[in-house]
Amino acid sequence: MNIKVTSVSAALAVFASVASAQQQGSAQNGQQGSLPTGIAGIYNLGASGLLESYLSNEPFGIAQTRIGVARAVTGVAHGGGPTSGYDTSPISGIGDFHALKVISPDSFIRFSTEYVDTSGGGSIVKVDAQTYRFDAQYVKFFDPSTMVAFGAFYENTDINNIGVAELSYGGWGLRADALKQFNQNWGVSGRIEYMFGGTDINLPISPTAAIIQKQDDDRLYIQSELVGRFDSSDLNWVPNGWVLNPIFGALYQKSWIEATADNFGNVSSGVNGPTEEYSTIWAKARISKQLAPGTWSPKATLGFEHELTNSLDEYLDEPTYGVVGLGVTYLTKSGGYFDVTYSGRLGLNGIREQNGITIAFTQTF
Predict the structure, then answer these.
(1) Cβ contact 202:196 at 8 Å
(2) Tell me: the pLDDT tens digits for 285-308?
(3) Sign of CA dihedral 238, 239, 243, 245
(4) Residue 73 has pLDDT above 60, yes or no
(5) N or C: which end of the chain has fewer CB within 10 A?
(6) What is the structure's pLDDT at 335?
(7) 249: helix, coil or strand?
(8) Which distant-in-sequence residues (6+ apart) come within 8 Å of 347 by Cβ?
């Protein structure tokens, strides 16, 4: 279970500020448009909000949280526990670090690492988890409006279903991303990854005995967002110096859980069969103050999410959520980017709630 509630804006923000300054200087010298493709692309896609969509793990992490907790609840219910009365309210603390290395005028290498510590909350089932993830990608700009990236990642999560079982879920995978800006107001992001994962389960059944099982647990994840950008020149009710980003997104995940025998010879796969599916859509509006080096920029988000498919909703039927976010960002004069964000989701049925605080730092070199 990978629990991430994070929204990291423009990890390449320092290049955006450099590009902005260079553009101003180039305009004065009649050399507008002479920026390298990669720098111009970072500035363009960063200003549009598409880079934030690329770098953020928020939708991905929310999905892993809901699936992971639902697995725990379903396992308890199918194992003789209550069949009703479940609710969950995990709280996560997230630490992110992103680094970007320039390797040519139109390409970069991106490294990122993330640690998530989650304290479970709920009426019957409580799940604590610690997640580590490391990504490395090659990033290529074909023009200032088009970017692709591909690479690999490693992920591991230690899970404690308190008083029930301990699990470890981990593995490595491949990831690809694409960004395309259509015009000055709209663009789209896409992400696909496949993880070759495995789960180790330790389920105590007495003070001296436990059920132990190992199984492959592969995962396909697909996500896309349509991101808009509007300022006061587009909409007169947007305050001067602020940017409005309407965001419409969707994701789909499918997991394949291997059927294996435990140490007592009993064969099983997942808590609800050999495959699981999850999909959701969302609509959000984010407003933020435009960034400038040496200044703080507040931001706020409001929206909703709705689950379309959830193979594990038998005991946690909570398809629709309200979304709220508050944060502040700081762009240092030396090229660092600091971000603190609170993000919360409240199920409209009052069954599920998720809250998280992210502290992120980005550096380019």
Answers:
(1) no
(2) 999 998 777 888 999 999 999 999
(3) negative
(4) yes
(5) C
(6) 64
(7) strand
(8) 318, 320, 321, 353
Give the separation between CA 4 and CA 131, rounded to whole angstroms: 9
**Which helix (H) or strand (E) is 300 found in, with range?**
strand 295-310
Beta carbons within 8 Å of 223's beta carbon, 6+ residues apart = 59, 60, 190, 191, 192, 249, 250, 251, 252
pTM of the model: 0.90
For residue 27, the SS3 value is helix
Which of the pair, 44 or 22, is modelled with greater confidence?
Answer: 44
Alpha carbons 247 and 244: distance in angstroms, whole number: 10
What local confidence, expressed as pLDDT, does residue 168 receive? 93
Residues present in the chain in total: 365
Q: Is the pLDDT of residue 13 over 60?
A: no
DSSP 109-140: EEEEEEEEEEE--BSS--EEEEEEEEEEEEEE
Place of tokens 């407003």: 287
**Residues 6+ away with beta carbon under 8 Å from 207:** none
Q: Exposed/middle/buried for 85, CB within 10 Å: 0-12, 13-18, 19+?
A: exposed
Largest alpha-carbon pair distance within the chain? 79
Joined together, the tokens standing for residue 129 give 């988890």
